[in-house]
Amino acid sequence: MTSTRVGMLTPSSNTALEPETYRMIQAIHGVSAHFSRLRVKKMTPEAESARQFESAVMLDVARLLEDAHVDVLAWNGTAGSWLGPDRDRQLCSDIASATGIPITTSTLALLEACRIFGVTRLGLATPYVQELNDQISRCYAQEGIDVVADEWLGLVDNLDVGSLTFEETRDLVVRAARNGAQAVAVVCTNVAATPLVQELEKQLGIPVFDSIAATLWKCLDLVDVPLRPSGFGTLMTTGSERRQGYLL
Questions:
Q1: What is the DSSP letter of 194?
Q2: Domain 4-108+212-237 falls in which CATH fold?
Q3: Same fold, 4-108+212-237 and 117-209
Q4: pLDDT the model gives residue 247
Q5: pTM for this entry
Q6: C-beta of residue 9 within 8 angstroms of C-beta of residue 73
Q7: Are the C-beta atoms of 99 and 63 separated by less than 8 Å?
Q8: Cβ of 69: how many Cβ atoms within 10 Å?
Q9: In a 3-state reduction of DSSP, which class is residue 6?
Q10: Which residue(s) pair with 4 in the sheet?
């Protein structure tokens, strides 16, 4: 019988994070993943796009996962990277207070990955438009992380993002590994970079922080699951500040 349930709030148009999470989690005995969706179709700098991620909507979705008695929650989306990490921190506080369940987000997991690895010079790889990447760069700078290489694909529709080929994704990450970047972050949970991380790290010689893998990494950490799947990069097998004894 499953002993640990991971619940994830998922963008409705996302087609990558669920299969990739299942792929990683199947090797971990006693852990299962469960998903609930909220409507997200496009990512733009406009206010209408930001309304997709309102706290009240997120809480309703979290409540559905609460019914499944999950042990940990995650907002498996990266909107906080351009709307601001403090927005994600407040979201986590609100949902944790309402449900009593520990929660993280993809953005907060990526930022912690940068702290763990001492990354202050980051290569940014996204499928988004330039304006969103500019906003991400500004938000990350406030967290002490300089985006020194910035690559985007100019996509708005999330279904188009989920249709990227491995070749397109690989090229995007490789292009972001320049200007002295200490790591590359793939900021989007609908980019299926997860299967490519290990080979890209060998090729580039720096960590590659995939949003999907980072989210699961932090979820497993929050519920003290010591077993980690292999073959998905160095982050997945690295202890976080919490596991090292620091208070988050």
A1: G
A2: Rossmann fold (3.40.50)
A3: yes
A4: 29
A5: 0.93
A6: yes
A7: yes
A8: 10
A9: strand
A10: 31
